[in-house]
Amino acid sequence: MTAKTLIDYFLPMEPRGPLVSQGVWGDPNVLPRDIHNGLEDVRLENWCYWDGKIVKDDEGRYHIYASRWHHAFTHRTGWKEDSKGIHAVSDHVMGPYEDKGLLWPHWQGGKGHNVIGLRMHDGRYATVTSEITQGEVFVSESPDGPFELLGRIEVDFNGFDPTLARYERNGRMANVKILLRPDGRYMIVPRSTATLISESGILGPYKIMSDRLYDKYPELPQTRNEDPTVWYSGGRYHIVYNHWPTGISYHFTSEDGIHNWAYRGVAFHKEALVFRYTDGTVNHWEMVERPTAYVEDGHVTHFIFSVIDVKKAEDLGNDNHASKIVVVPFDGASFDRDMQKIVAAEKATG
Prior knowledge:
Layout: E1 47-56, E2 62-70, H1 75-81, E3 84-90, E4 98-102, E5 116-119, E6 125-129, E7 136-140, E8 148-152, E9 155-156, E10 177-180, E11 186-189, E12 196-198, E13 206-208, E14 225-233, E15 236-243, E16 248-254, E17 262-269, E18 287-296, E19 299-308, E20 323-329, H2 332-348
């Protein structure tokens, strides 16, 4: 029997409302669908959504900090020219999430992309933007804001190639994901999949601690990798990143989150029936990117994905195509239990 990989732990989606085919955007491959799952502009009156990370507040509400642009733009121009950081909220982790507007309207008109949110070690809420900006952090005492600019992420290259931290095309931070480590330090995994550690707080300086995860695995694609997500569960650090030409994501683990990253197999691919509902209906999204783990009570319970119904070049603006954020449940408790058994067996055999 083939050993399980992360992809085997995705669960069917329980619809938050009736599956809908009429009066909504999208090609037949994504219909019918649950328009109350995640975050979307159902009638496509205004927005295409992308990026995001779920954060739960002390009152039990769920917040997605993400990005949006007007659907009059094509996908290829919208994320570069019109993307802004936004906040959405729901009483249920699966949604529906209600768009509450811009996160930092007073700063560059709200400009932001690769937007994520998190709780800091001091309990404050932080939101981060990169890719079309330099890599800024905004903070607030409340999950609802207002978010004020704290500063820009700083990096200590530590003798490594600077492009491990800053995207070589423009010198900006890109695809930034930040993890609050259980040892009190902050950890960034950017587009390169290198690991960066800060001893001094969320702004850093972050010291580059490793090269790209996949360098030691020549059987894996060595270019066009992006969209890492990072989390800690089951006593180990985990990274999943996406190879965008194939739509395949890969999973790595490490005991300390810095050294000895081990390849654990395929985390996701768009041909798998991940976007399936409890009644058997399946949505086949053409582009599936930005996988991001949500951890609660020590285990991943859901992943979110940014999805489009057609290829990016076919989303022309002011048409019937768009992007949204989908929330998919995940059996993280079983995943961590089985992962611990695998690691224990590896240690036993040397």
